Amino acid sequence: MAEDQGAPLHGAGLEDRGLVRVGDTVRRPAGPWTRSVHDLLRYLRRSGFDAVPEPLGLDSAGREVLTYLPGRDQGWPFLPEILTDAGAQALGRLARRLRCALIGYACPADARWQFRTGAPEPGESLQHGDLGPWNLLWGDSTEVTGVLDWDFAEPGDPWYDTGFLAWFAVPFMDDERAQARGFPVPPDRRARLRSFAAGAGVSPDDLIGLVHRAQTEFASRVTSRGSSETGGPWRTFLAMGMHESTLADREWSARHIG
Question: Where are the domains of the chain?
């Protein structure tokens, strides 16, 4: 019997990544990094972080198979849960919980990721690599119930995900960019900064530093990876000028937030 091709899933990504739903599973193209990502997901679920899909290997068409996670995505404008200060705090809690779980992962020395190989070096841990609202699902409560799209997982700064998520949750960008990203009216950034920081278990001043660090790192990745023939989606990011908009966000937030 031919493999069921499934119903296409269209998320908030910038590119069509070939995601389809087949019953209670999601199928998507696999890559050389898929085996390592699946090992990481199994670890997270064993450790109690169950807001990630369960990996089920590959199907006969060579696609990776993951359990389907129900939930609501961020939408536009953002869901009420994201727009409130309580929502910002919930996102901070998620970043803290995920960071603590990832620190405990015993990464195999032969692990292969999209843009790195091997285990984390001293001072590093595994990171999601793209922990933005577009990769989160919300349940009926005010907590995140799903963390999706682990293709950018790799060793790196343990605080990168925290800074990256705060960048878009506070947000660390001007009002025009914030509106395009999901805030229908200018948010109270100071209140949201305090709320996210409380959830993440850091001071507001320290969180500002983490966001600036994540913005700098992301711009560097866009420039270096987007210039590579094997850059994949990073080539799209570079063509869209994301390195420039990121540095503009950093400059704006340094002037207006700290």
Answer: 7-67, 80-256
101 within 8 A of 47, measured Cβ to Cβ: yes
Dihedral of alpha carbons 142, 147, 152, 158, sign: positive
Tens of pLDDT, residue by residue over 23-49, are: 999 999 999 999 999 999 999 999 999
Residues 6+ apart with CB under 8 A from 110: 117, 118
Spans of the chain below 70 pLDDT: 1-5, 9-17
229: amino acid identity, one letter: E
| pTM of the predicted model over 0.90 | yes
User: What is the residue type of 50?
Assistant: D
Phi, psi angles (nearest 5°) of residue 135: -110, 20
Spatial separation of the C-alpha atoms in residues 53 and 69, rounded to whole Å: 6
CA-CA-CA-CA torsion sign (137, 164, 27, 19): positive
Q: Is 80-256 CATH 3.30.43.10?
A: no
